[in-house]
């Protein structure tokens, strides 16, 4: 019960990684988890799937200050404090060359993946300064290398490493730890989208190609990422901040 008595916010909470992490947090004794996502119907489905009275939901656009402040305030109203914030919401954007990307397409990815992380920390910090805690950011192996035809996503996932490092130093005096997780390909909706965009009608072949590049021979499961998030949320990681954690089966080795 490594998270016994802790209260957490998980953005992107209705997605595969978000739900898997919520389940593990609850299994590890979390006293309450607030799932945040864009659509109420998806949140209700996630809450029903988890089937636990300690799960709460809030629909918000993480790229808007009003939405982020609202979900943070909701967590404080529900729980009285915030111990863990998993800034996991993200969008893959479109797959096309950098010259074909539109300004609107680029801005959407940056707003969700970068601005959403900054805003999450901006409103969480004042609450967490009282008791300390852990902020975990979902980046990607795309934040450590370049991926053709994914200019916005790759840029955004590099950018959150910089935001993490600044926040880790600003948070340290208050015992707020900040770290990033870098998944490789994960068995979920986002990878299905990317596979299909890379080769319309032949996504299965794209998947085989990616799997051949993973030394451990498979995509990550959502639970593999959740395991790392739970570790970073727990007191087992109480001396870890400002660090990057790759969970990719050796993909980036």
From TrEMBL:
This is NAD(P)-dependent dehydrogenase (Short-subunit alcohol dehydrogenase family). The keyword Cytoplasm does not apply. Belongs to the short-chain dehydrogenases/reductases (SDR) family. GO terms for molecular function: oxidoreductase activity. Transmembrane segments: none annotated. The keyword Acetylation does not apply. It comes from Cecembia rubra. Pfam families: adh_short_C2. InterPro entries: NAD(P)-bd_dom_sf, SDR_fam. Keywords: Oxidoreductase.
């Amino acid at each position: 019960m490594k998270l016994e008595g802790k209260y957490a916010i998980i953005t992107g909470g209705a997605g595969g990684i978000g739900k898997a992490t919520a389940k593990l947090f609850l299994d590890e004794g979390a006293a309450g988890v607030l799932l945040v996502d864009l659509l109420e119907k998806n949140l209700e489905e996630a809450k029903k799937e988890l089937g636990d009275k300690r799960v709460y939901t809030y629909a918000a656009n993480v790229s808007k200050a009003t939405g982020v402040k609202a979900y943070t305030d909701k967590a404080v109203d529900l729980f009285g404090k915030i111990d863990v914030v998993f800034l996991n919401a993200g969008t893959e954007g479109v797959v096309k060359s950098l010259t074909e990307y539109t300004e609107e397409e680029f801005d959407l990815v940056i707003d969700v993946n970068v601005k959403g992380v900054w805003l999450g920390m901006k409103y969480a910090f004042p609450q967490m300064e009282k008791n300390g805690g852990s902020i975990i950011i979902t980046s990607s192996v795309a934040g450590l290398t370049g991926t053709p035809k994914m200019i916005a996503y790759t840029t955004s996932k590099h950018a959150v490493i910089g935001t993490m490092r600044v926040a880790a130093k600003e948070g340290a005096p208050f015992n707020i730890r900040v770290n990033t997780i870098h998944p490789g390909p994960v068995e979920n909706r986002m990878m299905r989208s990317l596979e299909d965009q890379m080769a319309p009608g032949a996504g299965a072949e794209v998947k085989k190609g990616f799997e051949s590049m993973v030394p451990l021979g498979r995509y990550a499961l959502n639970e593999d990422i959740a395991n790392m998030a739970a570790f970073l949320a727990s007191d087992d990681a109480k001396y870890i901040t400002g660090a990057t954690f790759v969970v990719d089966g050796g993909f980036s080795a």
